[in-house]
Amino acid sequence: MDFAFFAFVLAIALMTAVGAVMLLVGYIVVIPASITRGWWWAALVVFLPIFGPIFFCRAFPEGLRKTRLQIFFGTLLLMGAAALLYGGGPWIAEQMVDAAKAAG
Question: Are the CB atoms for 16 and 78 separated by under 8 Å?
Answer without folding.
Answer: yes
